[in-house]
Amino acid sequence: MENTAKKRIFSGIQPSGELTLGSYMGAIRNWTVLQDAYDCVYCIVDLHTITVRQNPADLRRRCMAQLAQYVACGLDPEKSILFIQSHVPEHAELSWILGCYTQFGELSRMTQFKQKSQRHADNINAGLFTYPVLMAADILLYQADLVPVGADQKQHVELCRDIALRFNHIYGDIFTIPEPFIPEIGARVMSLNHPEDKMSKSDPEGCVFLLDKPEDIKRKFKRAVTDSEAHIDYNPEKQPGVSNLLSIYCAATGKAMPDALAQFDGQGYGNLKSAVGEIVIETLRPIREETERLLKDKAYLENIYKTGAERASRIARRTLLKAHKKLGFLPR
Ligand code: TRP
Fold first, then answer.
1. Of all helices (H) and strands (E), which one includes residue 41?
2. In whole angstroms, what is the distance from residue 239 CA to residue 232 CA?
3. Mind listing the pLDDT tens digit for each residue in 142-153?
4. Which end of the chain is more exposed for a tag (fewer CB within 10 A), N or C?
5. How many angstroms separate the CA atoms of 76 and 82, rounded?
6. Residue 98 pLDDT > 50, yes or no?
């Protein structure tokens, strides 16, 4: 049964690479916390991922591994709807419709489009351009109230609101107007070797992956960039590396920053790096072990995503047909 009394949350993560400590502390962990208070729908957005050329075998493996990691992190398929975007065709269908209510100029102003078309100058395809329209369809199909995203996706959620308001203005109350739900600061994990940048899979030595082996995590923290101030303080401007280590420590232990600072007061950077490395190893160990166990049980994972797609489809179809009717399409 869908519980309609709770507010609904929708969020998506691309299966474009391996999940990182950044995606865990910045997104997935928050998703698990929201599961009781909200009616949550979480999606692996594979349609978005093909805006950049993918290797099919890798994409298939990553989607499965990502689902296993979600579950290992505590996303509960009994509480939340977990599904894969391409399994629910309503996403692509509503996306076409919404595209007819989105202006070329609006999409041209999207920061991410501008960045990605620079980075992939040899493949500036139409999907890259209409990416935010598909994202709007994702959100609006489920009548989501809240959309947990990183700051970089806020502009897309705002465009989604504009599209929904425009559509509702013409056709009546079809879509719930969603709000971006940006997690509190401190959850932003920076690269270990370029601490002024966000932790990114494109820089594997500065990035901890959820499935990294303990010895790899240890090495990455050992080599983490610090500074020459030689004292441990939280000051992201002046000491980005040390501050990043401290905030990872706080996120992993649940300690408040003043307590962490008191604990490390007077210690050397070497100690800080190994302490943070250790706590990250212990945080990720059960997730890696559970993921490995789940990946051996393919039938169980398939059952999760099939059931998820059925539950998602029921909601999505209702919204899509409502829009069809308002647009003047003949009933099927
Ligand atoms: N564009 C998002 C990102 O790259 C992923 C995404 C796709 C998404 N559809 C969504 C996030 C809907 C929230 C809601 O991070």
1. strand 39-44
2. 9
3. 999 999 998 889
4. N
5. 8
6. yes
Identify the CA nearest to 41 among candidates 6, 73, 92, 93.
Answer: 6
User: Whose C-alpha lies nearest to ligand 1, atom 13?
Assistant: 11
User: Is the dihedral angle over the CA atoms 245, 75, 36, 5 positive or is it negative?
Assistant: positive
Does position 258 have pLDDT exceeding 50, yes or no?
Answer: yes
Q: Which of 7, 79, 154, 201 is catalytic?
A: 201
Work out whether the CA dihedral 137, 94, 59, 118 comes out positive or negative.
Answer: negative
* 174-198 exposure pattern, b = at least 16 Cβ within 10 A, e = fewer: bbbebebbebeeebbbbbbbbbeeb
Query: What single-letter amino acid sits at 275?
Result: A
Cα(263) to ligand 1 centroid in Å equals 38
Query: What does the pLDDT average to over 255-259?
Result: 95
Which residues are CB-contacts of 29 (< 8 A; sequence separation ≥ 6)? 73, 74, 187
Q: Binning pLDDT at 50, 70 and 90, where does residue 4 land?
A: low
Confidence of residue 186 (pLDDT cuts 50, 70, 90): very low
Q: Which neighbouring-strand residues pair with 147?
A: 180
- Distance in Å, CA 231 to ligand 1 centroid: 39
